[in-house]
Amino acid sequence: MLTERHLQIFVALAEEQHFGDAARVVGITQPPLSQGLRRLEALIGAKLFERGSGGVELTAAGAALLPFARRALGSIDEFRQAAVARDGEGPEIRLGLAPEVPPAAGAAIAAACGTALPGSRVTVVSGPTSSLVSQVSAGRLTLAVVLHPAVLDGLEAGPVRLLPTWALVPGDGDGESALSDLGGLPIAVRPRAEAPAARDLFLDTLALHRPDGGTVVVTDDRAALAMAAAGQAILVTADPLLAAPGVGRRRLTGDPLPTRLRLVWSRTRTPFARPADVMGQLTEALS
């Protein structure tokens, strides 16, 4: 059976002329893209591309059929938008938030959904960046705020927003400190698997500014805050309100460890929103 995904693969490969680039556009890996192309060619009984060492080129049949594929995808998009417009309850927006997103920033994003898309129904879940990216790709989430950098598998993404961070340290008193002056306690970090690229950047920066002291893995900020209160660790956070008795807050000189966030969504799964308008408004809510 001919599916929307077959047409997406056809159009992406025609535009990108490279299997790897087309796979990223569609939001899948290269093996299923090649598989999908073979199935499409078998369904229509025609070869669509000539394969070469440098990429692919449309055959005569492929060039003739490409305008029809584009029109079909456009009609599907119009159908979705019409369905949303007729939904008296408005579109449902399933928003994912990485745990590093401060509560106030998460609330601002959720509120912005209602402003940018009047009548929308917003549900919110929290999860690690790697899981959120997968869920947006699969269509289980409409959009998500994730850590940067991250492998996005063909998803659309807004600009990176840098949130300032503080070090929460054992002891009373606030102030400012260089990262290198934060004593010998380990820095609390979440598991690398939650956001491998972002975590590696954090650890590399930490090693550059503070080669001694090490790190300790924690499950969440509550555990990290408890360890700071017990005099066992230092927590770096973008949450301006996170606090506990016996824990001081230090602004890090030069802000070497900002929390980098960006909004991600699927181009093919958000028929009611366009990056130039709605997604731009939502991204501004992170500022």
TrEMBL record:
Keywords: DNA-binding, Transcription, Transcription regulation. Residues 2-59 form the HTH lysR-type domain. One of its GO terms (cellular component) is protein-DNA complex. GO terms for molecular function: DNA binding; DNA-binding transcription factor activity. The keyword Metal-binding does not apply. The keyword Transcription regulation applies. Belongs to the LysR transcriptional regulatory family. This is DNA-binding transcriptional LysR family regulator. It comes from Kribbella sandramycini.
